[in-house]
Amino acid sequence: xxxxxxxxxxxxxxxxxxxxxxxxxxxxxxxxxxxxxxxxxxxxxxxxxxxxxxxxxxxxxxxxxxxxxxxxxxxxxxxxxxxxxxxxxxxxxxxxxxxxxxxxxxxxxxxxxxxxxxxxxxxxxxxxxxxxxxxxxxxxxxxxxxxxxxxxxxxxxxxxxxxxxxxxxxxxxxxxxxxxxxxxxxxxxxxxxxxxxxxxxxxxxxxxxxxxxxxxxxxxxxxxxxxxxxxxxxxxxxxxxxxxxxxxxxxxxxxxxxxxxxxxxxxxxxxxxxxxxxxxxxxxxxxxxxxxxxxxxxxxxxxxxxxxxxxxxxxxxxxxxxxxxxxxxxxxxxxxxxxxxxxxxxxxxxxxxxxxxxxxxxxxxxxxxxxxxxxxxxxxxxxxxxxxxxxxxxxxxxxxxxxxxxxxxxxxxxxxxxxxxxxxxxxxxxxxxxxxxxxxxxxxxxxxxxxxxxxxxxxxxxxxxxxxxxxxxxxxxxxxxxxx
Length: 484
Hints:
The protein has helices at residues 3-18, 26-58, 72-92, 100-117, 129-150, 155-158, 161-178, 198-223, 236-255, 259-277, 280-300, 302-312, 323-335, 363-395, 400-424, 442-458, 470-483; strands at 180-182, 185-191, 194-196, 226-228, 231-233. The protein is mostly helical and 484 residues long.
């Protein structure tokens, strides 16, 4: 075969690799249709409740027409964005996961209905709470579509893991120095017209760094040990850089009083270490360090002590420090098994919701009252689906980096959902972390959209490994010529 013919075949392979061939995504379309039906029924229920309440205030409930969604524009725009993402994925033709998008769509729709139900002056700049949340949801869906279609190579993530880590820590340092205090914690950073919480982005950066480092050093972490007395510890020279990065990020977060992010980082770090090495000793060692660190923080930091005291006995000060936790427990009790219905719960106090941070820190309590035990179990089931799909993607990955990255990204969402649900139910101390895709807030929505977009991109089923970057390809060809 001539060199020209060989070159033409290579060009043909590259053209076929990047040729756009639309592919039907029947399962995704069917699930999205079910999501649309469910959200439309929820909007009808919310609209009927709101109209009935308004008619009761006017003194003529018998003449009101209860049919119709709460606000057709919200549900139409949101469902239109969902199906637009589906259409983009169909046109792109990539063989990626078809469960993640409908699951995220259902969670985001539930959050949007909750924002419609709450007073619109709680937050938001674009016409109120629900309008602003809708904008963030649409942007998040665009990010999911962009990453799911465009990301075809993960080398840009693994090669620059230390750069990503430095960027994340740098953002946190900037927040500590120039950030704005929110409820006693310095969480928000404003740059020009934009503001957000860098800790949301750091959770993605942390997983990328850990996936890169653990995939490179997994064999040494599994097979080698350092003996200190009766203990067998990981090889310290290889574990030290990873622990140092995690400690720096965690220390800054603790100083900023963002305990929810600190707990999330620690849990993800420990879970990924176990997923990569399968050594129970690492988990025991990590849990021991957690207990010692928690005890030290309890005595050193007053805000940590306050959070734990509220968790142990919120009824000691039900109208003060323990007010929000007590009101959340009352909301779950009022909801019972099947709830009061969308719009039928959350009795106002002086015209305001019973929980001040209902739209950010306590959406699970609000949904527990209006959807009941059945509803919140269904919501937790949706998060379990996200985690299961992520772990399935990890198990089918073509190399260790992609496997650890997919597992870590899915665990971030699962751990975050467990932390906020546990805090609302008083199973763990309240941390102030957001409920993914449900809580109000742009930073959280966009960061979680990046996670889902990367998971969909990583899920592509192909017989051949992803192409290496061109620079590595040239180096490999040079080495091949030298060997010949």
